[in-house]
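Please complete every field before forwarding. Incomplete forms are returned to the sender.

SECTION A: IDENTIFIERS
Entry label: holo-148
Bound molecule: copper (II) ion
Molecule representation: SMILES string

SECTION B: INPUTS
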Amino acid sequence: MTRHSLCAALCTVALTLSPALALAQAPKTAPKAAAPKAAAGANFMVSLPVMVTLKAVSALPKMAMAHNFVLLKAGVDAAAVASAGAAARDTNFVSPKSKAQIIAASALAGGGESVTVEFTAPAAGKYQFICTFPAHFQAGMVGQLIVE
Ligand SMILES: [Cu+2]
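SECTION C: PREDICTED COMPLEX
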């Protein structure tokens, strides 16, 4: 669990990562009789669903203080996505223009609200997640999701 230290006086944001490993479609029989024995049992398709629940605790109105969880594809300019989002009030501070850069985005959580977003873990690597509420990324609401 990670707590944003930024808004300790105003609110508390808790991120809970709940990964559940699912070994799906394990072949009941060897896919090919000719497959090398060394590969037997290695043909599992692994998908890793991840559920993130973001809870915002704040006494302020939602449009004055809220948070979201926006997971970015690798190599994306997080500052650019944050800036575009800050100007996109009509779409809860996630710009439609950034769609191609985003793996998953939660709804906006105002004080006392919890939002949950589910996605399939991307390929092994490091991915940034940010809050796109105005000025929050710049204030340090950024983290890293590491897929191994
Ligand atoms: Cu925030």
